[in-house]
Write a structure and sequence with these properties.
Distance between the termini: 51 Å
Strand content: 5-15%
Number of helices: 26
Number of strands: 12
Structural class: mainly alpha
Shape: elongated
Helix content: 55-70%
Largest sheet: 4 strands, antiparallel
Strand order of the largest sheet: 2-3-1-4
Length: 734
């Protein structure tokens, strides 16, 4: 039975006899033969080489990494080694076998000596179970068979799906909370006093939104926009932001417990990755000397400077998007279409969001190449160190790619644009954008909604369709059987040929295959937590996306792609630190959104300082009555810059704009500084309270369940007792 199984398949073009590529291929295969590998060659339109490692290699592995608790003393005693471990060991040896020309497999693949190297999807019971019970759309609400996934794809893939399942499960709670806040916003807050005042402000004339041809407009024209704003920007949002800060902490703490239970069941809780790597190096080459830990301050400084340069470029792209929105607003306001003129600001924000999504798609590819190049400069010692360094860099770049534009909208839009008569301009020509009188949070809501919906629909459709279409095309191109001549029948019917060909025609997998899935989910987690105060529906969108994502990834791995090389792991690696960092950013981000972007603080200051409730001791009046009038400043039309040409001036020669400035010299009023102090105080209070609650939640939920700790304690006790029994009789004999 073992004679029919092959650990790996190498694929090569048919090269001319005596050519350089053919010589290099022969040298590599000779090196494998010296190590005792069995090699089988099948010729089709390509050359296929099946390789099978000798049993001795796996016995060495079992002996070197035997479980110390079992005290296995007999080197000849060996147990059946899992298929995932076989593939992992063979892959390590293939990748680290050096030819006489000092070339490894990845060098040969770059030079097109070999085209592909992959383990086979075997027709085993586990695979059939996963195909039928896991990798199907109909199982979308079913629990995942994590143990079976581990048996087929190894621990790293199993932990990814365990983490994704756990994340989705807890997202359900956040999604319900977000939906409740959103529905409450629709039912309770859309009819708030502030919205009523805007809708009834038919005599409040607002200053023009652009320099040329823009009319003065009435505040009541934006009634619908105001209602939408107060659906999002209300007291419920503050509570939800606090809830999400706690949710992020509890999610990670519960995941740590879940992970501890899972890896303890796999007997990997105290597994040492470095020991495993050293053992594999020695199995591959007994003369191997371990690489020393090294650190170069000069190299680290260069890499840090290059990372900062890349971040500056990404921030520059965010600036370019700002400039686009400014110019687009100016062009839309001068358009012949009445709809475009009226909705110029909203249209600029929406088209800007689509453009932002396109830059995300393009820069994702650029970021990967830059991060890889920087990792090569660092010369990491091990594969896992390389993976960690790459993860930190690509996440940093992706974070700035995804969030620079959102950070501008949340914290700078409408705050650095000056005021009528003294606007801040780009190239001395175009005015920066302004916020709507009812607040900036709707702009952030629109941006978040468009990016999340586009990312989760287009990206997922492409993620599934591209490999599916590619798979169907490769199947069509499969060469038809030649008309057999006498003597060729046996070769054509080789049982391995069909299996190797069908595996070769599946989509390619590489180091990035699982990494990409993790990165996609971690960026989504950032969207779900960091600006959730502006978009309470983010957890709901993420929840539905993840239900599909789990099955989509399963179908890709089982049906559309070659078998991924299994990797051993006892946690999700550096991603956990990244998620913890996002949890802290979420507290800061949501605190800033409520303090700066939202109108929550100005409204509270008004209610408790300037409202009729405070000044007139009126009990039957809504305390926010008069807030809109209080938040708008007065501008004299004759003070416009000379080259601006607004529409017909209103009667009274004054217009209103959103700010807290004096009517005579346009300096900030006392109210502005009062609100500024209140924003700062709220931000400090919110972040300290949220971080304290996070710390209490982290303390309250232990990382490791007591059952796991007790299991290890009992195991240690049992082993020590066995040791003592082993020593006592010998002493008596002595």
């Amino acid at each position: 039975q073992d004679e029919d199984k092959w650990d790996f398949v190498l694929v090569s073009d048919i090269h001319e006899v005596g050519s350089e590529k053919e010589t290099k291929r022969k040298k590599f295969l000779d090196e494998l033969s010296k190590k005792g590998f069995t090699i089988k060659k099948i010729e089709d339109k390509k050359l296929f080489y099946g390789v099978r490692a000798p049993k001795q290699i796996f016995r060495k592995y079992q002996w070197l990494l035997r479980n110390p608790d079992s005290r296995l003393q007999n080197p000849d005693a060996h147990y059946e080694i899992p298929v995932t471990t076989r593939i992992r060991i063979v892959n390590f040896i293939l990748q680290n076998t050096v030819t006489s020309d000092l070339e490894k497999l990845h060098h040969l693949m770059k030079k097109k000596v070999f085209e592909a190297a992959f383990p086979l999807h075997e027709k085993e019971e586990v695979r059939e179970f996963l195909k039928e019970r896991w990798a199907r759309w109909r199982d979308i609400f079913c629990q995942q068979p994590i143990e079976k996934i581990r048996c087929y794809f190894g621990e790293k893939v199993a932990l990814y799906f365990a983490w994704l399942g756990w994340y989705t499960y807890l997202l359900g709670i956040a999604a319900v909370a977000g939906l409740v806040v959103f529905v409450a916003g629709i039912t309770v807050f859309s009819s708030s006093q502030v919205s009523k005042e805007i809708c009834e402000a038919s005599n409040t004339v607002m200053c023009p939104l652009c320099d040329q041809k823009c009319p003065f407009w009435l505040l009541s024209d934006t009634c619908t926009y105001a209602k939408v704003t107060h659906m999002i920007d209300n007291e419920g949002t503050v509570l939800f932001a606090m809830f999400m800060a706690i949710w992020a902490t509890v999610f990670l703490e519960l995941w740590k417990r879940q992970r501890a239970t899972v890896v303890t069941n796999w007997d990997l809780y105290r597994w040492d990755e470095e020991e495993e790597e050293l053992a594999m190096e020695l199995i591959n080459n007994l003369q191997h000397e371990p690489r020393q830990y090294q650190h170069s301050y000069f190299r680290s400084t260069i890499i840090l400077l290059l990372v900062l340069l890349m971040i500056v470029v990404l921030i520059g792209i965010a600036h370019a998007l700002v400039i686009y929105r400014v110019i687009a607003t100016a062009l839309f306001t001068q358009s012949d279409s009445e709809f475009l003129r009226e909705q110029a600001n909203t249209m600029a924000v929406m088209t800007g969001a689509v453009l932002h999504y396109i830059t995300i798609v393009i820069m994702t590819k650029v970021n990967r190449h830059v991060a890889l190049y920087l990792c090569e400069l660092e010369k990491p010692r091990t594969f896992s160190q390389h993976e960690n360094n790459f993860t930190v860099k690509i996440f940093t770049f992706q974070f700035f790619t995804n969030f620079s534009s959102l950070i501008y909208i949340a914290f700078f839009l409408g705050r650095i644009n000056g005021h009528p008569g003294n606007y801040v301009r780009i190239a001395g020509k175009w005015r920066l954008e302004e916020c709507h009188p009812s607040g900036c949070i709707t702009d952030l809501f629109i941006q978040m909604a468009i990016i999340m919906i586009l990312k989760q629909t287009i990206s997922n459709v492409m993620e599934y369709l591209v490999p599916w279409v590619a798979h169907k095309l490769r199947k069509r191109q499969r060469p038809k059987k030649r008309s057999m001549m006498l003597g060729e029948e046996e070769e054509a019917e080789d049982p391995c040929k069909r299996q190797w060909l069908s595996n070769y025609q599946l989509g390619e997998v590489n180091f990035f295959s699982l990494f990409d899935e993790f990165l996609e989910m971690v960026i989504q987690y950032s969207f779900t937590t960091i600006f959730v105060a502006a978009f309470p529906l983010a957890p709901l969108l993420a929840f539905f996306n993840n239900l599909f994502e789990i099955r989509l990834d399963a179908i890709k791995m089982m049906r559309l792609r070659r078998r991924i090389v299994p990797r051993k792991a006892n946690d999700i690696g550096i991603w956990l630190q990244v998620l913890e960092a996002i949890g802290i950013l979420a507290v800061i981000g949501n605190g800033l959104v409520i303090a700066i972007t939202s109108d929550f603080i100005p409204m509270q200051v008004y209610k408790y300082t300037y409202s009729p409730c405070m000044t007139e001791n009126s009990t039957g009046v809504d305390c926010s009555t008069g807030y809109i009038n209080h938040s708008l400043s007065v501008f004299r039309v004759q003070d416009f810059e000379p080259y601006t040409q607004p529409g017909l001036a209103p009667t009274g020669l004054c217009c209103r704009y959103r700010d807290y400035r004096n009517a005579d010299d346009y300096s900030y009023t006392v109210q502005f500084w009062h609100i500024f102090a209140a924003r700062l105080a709220f931000l400090i209070l919110f972040e300290h309270v949220a971080l304290c609650v996070k710390l209490i939640a982290a303390w309250y939920v232990p990382d490791v369940p007591k059952s796991v700790k007790n299991r290890f304690r009992e195991r240690k006790h049992s082993n020590l007792r066995k040791e003592l029994r082993w020593v006592m009789p010998r002493r008596c004999q002595g």
